[in-house]
Amino acid sequence: MAKKVAVLAVNPVNGMGLFTYLETFYENKIEFRVFAVSDTTAIHTNSGVALKADDVVFSLKGHADDFDALVFSCGDAIPVFQAHASEAYNLAMIDVIREFAAKGKLIIGHCAAALIFEKAEITVGKKVAVHPMAKVAIQQGQATDAPYEVDGHLYTAQNEHSVEAMMPALLDVLR
Known about the structure:
31% helix, two-stranded antiparallel sheet, globular, alpha/beta, 11 strands, single chain
């Protein structure tokens, strides 16, 4: 039986990465819900396309048992996160990532996701693929030059172009 996935979409989100996950999940009959890392479900891609998420990140807190996996769909995550790190929705996002990791759920992301995972303190001793410009910021995990890494329950892709390469490994555990 296919698994159920919670997708975190930052605002703005990288449309190519987000749509790669969503199309793959849809085509493979993997149930998913998109949660905006925002105060509102109205978000947009970093190219300006307006989107409406299913819900907001606050609603995901305490519900890790309802899902088998958590996807962090990157966008302009790091500069936006840095400017708004103390916002309640970003604090909730970090809590949700920690909650899913503590329950042994699959944690998936691309580009700077490894940096957010590092902030959530779930990369300790793990190999992670991360955007080359962010590689030096990984201190708890081991940043690699691989297009993607699978280390236990942690799936990371270097950028939105590497998500597709990671998908076969991810689909093997989500189907």
